[in-house]
Design goal:
This protein is of the alpha+beta class and 328 residues long. The chain contains nine helices and 13 strands. It has a six-stranded antiparallel β-sheet. A five-stranded antiparallel β-sheet has the order 3-4-5-6-9, with helices on one face. The longest helix is centred in the first third of the chain and has 24 residues. It is elongated, with a radius of gyration of 23 Å.
Length: 328
Amino acid sequence: MATVEMDFLRGQLEERKHRLEAVLARTPDEPNLELLLREVDSALDRFAVGTYGLCETCHDTVERDRLLADPLLRYCLDHLTQSERSALQRDLDLASELQRSLLPPADLTVDGWETSYHYAPLGPVSGDYCDLYPCHGRLFFMLGDVAGKGVAASMRMTQLHALFRSLIGIGLPLAEIVVHINRFLCDSGLDGRYATLVCGLAQPNGEIELFSAGHLPVIAVERGTVRLVESTGFPLGMFRDASFASASLRLCAGDLLFLYTDGLSEAAGDGGEYGIDRLKHLLGRQCSACAAAVISACVEDLRRFAGATPGLDDVTLLALRHGVPAAA
């Protein structure tokens, strides 16, 4: 693991030790707290002798994401007891249920916009982020991809969800929200936990304010013409003082905005990667379809392309369509 992450974990353990000692000084007859303090002391001892983060059975490295979620771990996944495996599976099931509870309503229609999304984690939990938030007659939309996989990435996704909704709720402009979240991720101390992100504010009249922080190009289908809206800044969490420029769009009735993570564009098939050109061609043929039909067509095309090849990443898609198509 990176030095910054190891320093972070050691700091977390030292802080936990001080808190436990303070509580035990007030309530000394707490056997569960005494046991926990011994586990924390053992972890700090492993830091002192240079064995922290190594499995006590095989001496291989304990999985990074698991250590970041629980700094007291002593065994890799291959050497958990059956009861530990069962407990881990229960925790993953609960985490998966929590993540899905944070997703927006399916096929949401609000404020002159119809929406649809597809959310398919590679494992029990996902580092992909997708949200729709109607607020005061406008629609905020967010789609992102946290670096890495597993529990630590899913925790970052949950942080993004809470931060966006809290900052939107107090009325901050979208530009300020992006800056605040970037600084939070930079200051959190977890090395390499950046996130690519597209977020936007859609008005009932079709106007969109769009920020893309290091994410894949957004695809706009405007009156049958397909174009890419490229990233306007660095990923969030890379540079604390980074600035983020916005793009402005004005969609007419029937126009479409399509967002996706690299689980789609980098999906592997017999012909190589799925790619953005294939996606543009598909969306160009779906210009008269509703948002839900666009998502269904994309998912079906991905299945035809990838066949039985297992995916290597989470796949999240989001379509926003303005109004209704004009009469022929």
